[in-house]
Design goal:
Layout: H1 10-28, H2 36-46, E1 51-54, H3 61-70, E2 76-80, H4 87-91, E3 92-97, E4 102-107, E5 114-118, H5 125-128, H6 132-137, E6 139-142, E7 145-148, E8 154-159, H7 172-175, E9 180-183, H8 189-199, H9 212-223, H10 229-244, E10 248-250, H11 254-270, H12 278-289, E11 294-295, H13 297-301, H14 306-316
Parallel strand pairs: 1-8, 1-9, 2-5, 5-8
Antiparallel strand pairs: 3-4, 6-7, 10-11
Length: 323
């Protein structure tokens, strides 16, 4: 496959759909759960975004992230977030070389194609903020020098929403940098039986499926997917609905609207289509928008959350095809 400025050809779309299916099938050899979960990870990658995996301990957040990284023939680094982790432990620092008295950059784990930030909410805000520039601009600044990160680049972060002791809630500015938040729940009985049978002995090994060049090509093809004005206007009206809602303190930003459009394009190309359908927006609205919505204190006391606002928007904001 080669990237093209023109709309993707049918051959290119068929190749992307085939490769995407192969990658999801490979992850399914290790991860037991809904197929849409690895599909959403790949959508995030093709949309040049980052993903926050949230769930209680033991629901395979880290296993899922590592399995996804293993299907990409790309560099992978893992950062275990702890209260004493410093920003330089993520970005790197200049060290003195005694041999010649010069300073050399010792790159941190952020210099990788796939970065796993495990238990990201266990580090203070100062350390969490070290990811902001990297996630938004694919670059990092060390001692005044800006360095570009390798491409493709994606951050997979995990956090436990239940345990509060020794954790630091992610600030809204950083949460907004995650294109998606995926909630991993307890498996069903049949799924848990399959987990025990598959992992009781030696877990299967995941094989690389996509190379960095293939990923970059697929990202370019996703960018070229067509979204008509009616789809774009529908996304904008949904975002506006969240901002104007009486129980919402902070609604979906224009960055959220753009993220939903990019994700919809990535989903379309993964399914072998050169155009976005209203169903793409419908299927992706919840993981893309819900985590960006901050409820009013009164609504929080009533137990309302961003998920409910997105569901309400899907019901009340109709897609209006242009004539």
């Amino acid at each position: 496959m080669s990237a093209a400025a023109q709309p993707p050809s049918q051959q290119q779309l068929a190749q992307v759909a085939q490769r995407a299916s192969q990658l999801v099938d490979e992850i399914a050899r290790v991860y037991v759960g809904p197929r849409e979960v690895p599909e959403l990870l790949l959508i995030t990658l093709l949309a040049r975004g980052h993903v926050l995996l949230e769930g209680v301990p033991g629901v395979a957040k880290t296993t899922l992230a590592k399995s996804f990284a293993s299907t990409l023939a790309s560099s992978f680094k893992r950062i275990q977030f702890t209260p004493d982790l410093m920003p330089a432990d993520i970005t790197g620092t200049y060290v003195l070389m005694p041999a010649d008295g010069t300073f050399t950059l010792r790159e941190g784990p952020i210099f990788a194609n796939v970065v796993l930030g495990d238990e990201i909410n266990r580090a203070p805000a100062k350390t969490q903020s070290a990811l902001l520039e990297a996630m938004q601009e694919s670059q990092t600044t060390i001692d005044g020098e800006t360095r570009t990160l390798p491409q493709p680049f994606i951050v997979l972060a995990t956090q436990n929403p239940v345990e509060q002791a020794g954790t630091y809630p992610l600030p809204e500015a950083q949460i907004d940098r995650f294109l998606m938040r995926l909630l991993l729940r307890y498996p069903g009985e049949r799924e848990e039986v399959a987990i025990l049978q598959r992992h009781a002995a030696s877990p299967p090994e995941v094989q690389p499926i996509l190379t960095p060049d293939e990923i970059l090509t697929m990202q370019a093809l996703a960018d070229a997917v067509h979204a008509d004005d009616a789809v774009v206007e529908h996304i904008v009206r949904m975002a506006a609905f969240t901002r104007d809602h009486s129980q919402v303190f902070l609604g979906a930003s224009p960055r959220a609207s753009l993220s939903l459009l990019k994700a919809a394009k990535a989903r379309a190309v993964m399914q072998g289509r050169g155009h976005v359908l209203p169903d793409d927006v419908k299927q992706l609205a919840l993981p893309v928008l819900a985590h960006r919505i901050v409820m009013t204190p009164e609504a929080q006391m009533d137990g309302r959350a961003g998920d409910e606002i997105v569901h309400e928007a899907l019901e009340k904001v109709a897609h209006r095809p242009r004539r």
